[in-house]
Amino acid sequence: MKPSKEIRILLADDEPHIVQFLEMGLVNEGYTVRSAPDGMSAYGLAMDFRPHVAVLDVMMPGMDGYHVCRMLKEAGNAVAVIMLTAKDEIDDRVKGLTIGADDYMVKPFSFDELLARIGARLRNQFPDLLGEVALGPFKVDDRRGEIRYEDRLLELSPTEYELLKYLVLHHGTVQSKAIILDKVWGYDFGGEENIVEVYIRSLRDKLGDKEHKLIRTLRGAGYRVDLP
What we know:
Elements: E1 8-12, H1 16-28, E2 32-36, H2 39-49, E3 53-57, H3 65-74, E4 80-85, H4 90-98, E5 103-106, H5 111-125, H6 127-130, E6 132-135, E7 138-141, E8 146-149, E9 152-153, H7 158-169, H8 177-185, H9 194-207, E10 215-218, E11 222-225
Parallel strand pairs: 1-2, 1-3, 3-4, 4-5
Antiparallel strand pairs: 6-7, 7-8, 8-9, 10-11
Helix pairs in contact: 2-3, 7-8, 7-9
């Protein structure tokens, strides 16, 4: 998903391989990213960079993530703070939330989960930044819950909207039925995988994709949206 406006994200972690991996992924998603190896550097960078979201590791040399979070909030910065920790203790979460952290993630975590948490914070605290996302012939407006295809507004049910949005935003990659069920219907969905086929068929009808060139079926693997 490519944000419609510049969205700035600050990463602070003393593990270089984690920072490199996250920075590469976030830049690929269209975010503007800066990183710091310790708390003091992170705070100084934040004063100049003015991030919308700060992802802070709790355990950093010199100044820990809690301290950085507290200073950012006390400085009046309009920044959403996501804390990262290797611990899964309730007391640690309470401490982070008490000093102003907006969310909390325990290592190890998936990149998709971090993306989801960042997206949630942006929708909550900076809704005007997300706007409309244009990808090929599609325009996805998450604020209005609308998708246009070749400038034609599609009449979609809520589930059709979420499914098409997911496939379009992950265009060029194969999505299995299991992954689609997890991402669109939720991990606790108790129905059959065939429900995905039913919704794919409905989307193809509404897109006029009779030859399945837009939403392709890869037998035994899943579905893939190919954009011109």
